[in-house]
Predict the structure.
Amino acid sequence: MAELLAIPGWGWAIFGLAMAVGGGLYATSATDDTFEQLIKRGPWGTHPDSSLPGRDDKAYYSQLLALLSPIQVTAQRYADVEPDPELTHPDFPPKADDYVITLQLPLVSRIRLHQECTGSLPVSPFRLVVQEVAYLSTTTDVPSKGLTESSTITHMLKATPLTKVTARQSIPHQSAVRFLVRREIQDSDYQSLYYQESVTTCVRVGLQATLDTELGPLVFPAPVFEDYESFDLARHSQPPPKERTLMRPYDQPKSPYWYFTEVSV
């Protein structure tokens, strides 16, 4: 650990914050979340667990970065955003209902924009992918003995292909980027006496980045704690598409080294 304890500046700040915040949290909480477990049972913790994966300096550091660097994604209608020539596309004039997606990442300045191509890292240091997802919710009202019982079922109706974002606008003062997504699926509602259905749409956003750190380039976000595994270009470079699931339609497929979320206007 001697090399990592000598981390200058930014890396030391991350380490200090992790230990200070983590120590206070698990000292006062009876139930540990993932961050507290990593601090307590990691290689520097009070109860280090030798059975956990990712115990070397670089792996542990990448997990701390993933937990201490929250990503925020928001969606707006293009009509609700102040006009900006840099946001428009010359070949595809945006429509009022198109999406403007803003992604904020505290570590955006650490993205390794100029990297040498190697066989172990993604070719692109900042990868954004999107797809539009539609959900169908149906509600059936059944009259029974003077009362009405309602049953609601939601499932994924359809999705557009997962698409790479090729043009984006930087917003340095917000540590953010934003980009346009063309709307292809419209919301809808139908209602009759005992039946109602609605189609609602979300934008699924995925992110993978290569960061410059004191310990060398790291792919972000790393899986953490018991889910940790080393980055493998063959297995982790391709983002998984959204698939239909019967019981939990909003769940994301397992995707180590990718961040995914769904947002709506």
